[in-house]
Amino acid sequence: MSKASWRPMTAADLSAVLAVAAIVHPGYPEDEAVFAERLRLFPQGCLVLEGSSGLLGYIVSHPWHRGAPPALNTLLGLLPAMPGAFYIHDLALLPAARGSGAGRLVIERLVALALEARLPRLALVAVNDSSGFWQRQGFREMHDPALAAKLASYDDAARYLERELEIPTPSASPIENNEEHR
Questions:
Q1: pLDDT computed for residue 48 by the predictor
Q2: What domains are there in the chain, each with its CATH number?
Q3: Residue 45 has what DSSP assignment?
Q4: Residue 3 has pLDDT above 70, yes or no
């Protein structure tokens, strides 16, 4: 694979994003409106992997409710005022980009976004036998019968996973901790 890098997604990328989605997730089609809405609602969570020959992948993510993944191919309307997780809606990499470390890099970027938003976990629905990849990134499968209806919009093999994050507590300034300065 030639040198590729993650950059912010733009509306001009949507047709290429849909082309990548058709290759990587043919069994999970979503309308362009779904991607356009996620980009509008939370642009900082929408990135594309660009190589010299064009787009090699994308990721779409946003704050969301814990344990309540949106059904496949549905619009959100609004993001929640009190989200409980940072939700990875979709990560798709063309075969040429797999194994390059691009997936791991973008996940760490999302960890930073989640921590900045003070969200204590990342969440996603794993499809296409991708659970192993996600588990190597620190995600754990969550077994909750209440999720069955949501996961049914994907397929029987879909799994809901979460990765807990440790939100750092704000520390006192050095001056506040130093008695000599009081």
A1: 98
A2: 5-181 (3.40.630.30)
A3: G
A4: yes
